[in-house]
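Q: I'm writing a short explainer about Hydrolase for a general audience and would like to include a description of its predicted shape. Could you first generate the structure from this sequence?
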Amino acid sequence: MDFKFEEATIDQIQEAFKDKSLTSRKLVDFYLHQINTLNPLLKAIIEVNPDAQYHADKADFERDSNNSKSTILDYLHGIPILLKDGIGTKDKLNTTAGSYALLGSTVAREATVVEKLRKSGGIVLGKASMSEWYKFRSMSGVSDGWCARSGQGLNPYVPGGSPCGSSSGSAISVAANMVSVSLGTETHSSICCPADHNSVVGLKPTVGLTSRSGVIPMTPRWDTVGPICRTVSDAVYVLEVIAGADPRDEATIEAAKFIPEGGYKQFLKLDGLEGKRLGVVRHPFVEKIHGAIESATFEQHINTLRDRGAIILDNLQIEHVNKILDPNHSGEITLMMTDFKTSINNYLKELIDSPVRSLADIIAFNENNPELEKLAEHDQNTFIAAEETDGFGDHEKALVEKLEHYCLDGFEKTMKENEVDAIMTPGSRAAAVYAIGGYPTITVPAGYEADGMPFGLCFGGLRGTEHKLIEIAYAFEQATKVRKPPQFPNATEIINQ
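A: Of course. Here's the predicted structure. Afterward I'll give you a sentence or two in plain language.
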C-alpha cells in the first residue's frame, strides 16, 4: 500500500515503519523534495542538515536491527524535526537567530532539547527561519517572519497574509508539509501566533518545563521552548521527549514537578472535554476579531465544546487586562530590554567562536553591514534602547512586582474563583496575559476566513496544567477536525516567476 506523505502524523509514520511501507530515508527524501519545491517561495527554512539522509539511513538500520528484539523504540525514532534557528546544534548547521551577525559562530554544546530529540532517535532536518532576533531588533521597523538570512517568510495559505512571529518558519514548514514536526520558542506570542496564522497546533509549555540551555535567549524569565505540529498528538509526543529537569537551566528544576507520572500521552482522550470547566473571556479578545467567519465560528465552537461535555462559563473578566495588553504601559518591554542585554551578552561570551561578543557588537555589525542586514535607519531601535539599559535596579524590581500583581489579581484570580480548568480565547490575542505569568497554552486550528486566512482557538491555564490543556485541545481537535493543508497547484510556476 502506498504511503500518503502529506499530513502524515507520527502515529501513521510509525505504523508505516512497522509494516515496512515506509523508511526514514524515504520520508527525509520526500521532505527534501518539498523543501526544494516550496521553500524558494515560502522562505521558511534557512539551512538543511547535510547529514539528514545519513541519520535517516542510520535510523532505518537501527529499526531493522531491532526487529528481533523486544525493545520499543521511541515515538520520535526516525522522525524528521525542524528547529527554530535560535536553538543550538553542535553539527554542520549554524545557529544565528536569523542574523548574519552570528553566521559562522560555534556553540559550546547542543541545546538540551536537541540532545533529548537526538537521544529519542529524532532526525534534525534543518533550521527554520524566524523573525530575526525574535523580532526584537526593532519592534516597529521589521515585519513578522522576516530575517536577513532567508528573507521574508510567507503565509502558505494567503501569501499576502502575515505568518506571524517569531517562530514563523517552524509553523510555515509544518503547515506546508515540508517537515513532520518542529520546535519553536515563545517569549510573547511566538508559538501561539504562528500556529494561529498557519493552521497548525502550537504548544507553549509552562516556563521551565523545557530547558532553554543552548537556546539564544530573549528574556529568560519568560522564554520557553515548545512544539509546533499539525496535530495535538504529535505536539504531545514531542513535549514528552523534551520536557524535564536540566541542571544547566535552574528554572527546570522547579517546573519538573509538574510532569505527571506516566507522562503526557495518557491525556490524549476523546472524552477529554467531559466535565471540564472552560472560561470564555470575551473582553477585549472577541471584540478584536476582524472577520465575520471567525466570529461566527467562535460561537459554534463554544456550542461544540458544550455538546462534548464541557461546562462553559461565559463572559468572564480578567482584571487589569487592558493594562497587560499594552506592553509599554505594563513594563513588559522595559523588562525585556533589560533582560535581553544581560542574557545575550552572557550567551555570546560562552560561544567558542563568534564574530560578535556583545549586544554592542551586534549593533555595530548591523551598522557596518547594511547590505547584509537590509538595514533601514530605524530597524534596530529596540537593540539600541536595550543597550542603553543599566542593569536590574529598583525600577525593574518594581515592574516585576507590578506584573506579578497583575497575574495574581487578574488571570489567576479569574481561574481560581471560577474553578475553571482553562480559559478559551480566539487566536493569539491573549498572548500577553499568558506571557507575563509563564503560563502554558495550546493553540488549535479552528477555521478559515473568506480569503483563506487561518484562525485558531487558544486554551490557556495555570502553570503546570499542560495535562488539562492537552485533554481539552485533543478532544476539541478530534470533534472538529478543522485543519486542511494549503494548496500549491502551480508551485513550480509561481517559484519561477
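A: For your explainer, you could say: The mean pLDDT is 95.
Q: Perfect, that's easy to follow.
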